[in-house]
Amino acid sequence: MGLFDSIKDRFNSAEFTVAPNKKLKTISADFMAAFDLTLVFYKGKQIADGELTLNQLNEKTTKTVRKSSVEALKIKGSTKVGDAERMFDETFGVTVQIKDKTGKILVPNEITIGKAARGEY
Question: Which of 51, 91, 95, 106 shows the smallest number of beta carbons within 10 Å?
């Protein structure tokens, strides 16, 4: 079953795309709908206000980010959790954590989002 799940994760037509003008709560809701996992945004060490957009949160952080980035961030089930979190940091300059469906348990960085969605950790 593991090989089949890996293939399914790689070719899953549902690709999660993030645009910088979306509100954080909308991105989190879309992530939950796509992967059945919780995506949490942080401003420093505190959870960010869901009413902010990614651009607005970026303006409130101290990180230097490519402001002219027009490419959308795309995540699939075959993406490792740690890689997805790093992509948010590199593209938008924001810190995120991926947690289980309840939002209580951090998902290990070494596994794919697809495995995490199936609870295989």
Answer: 51
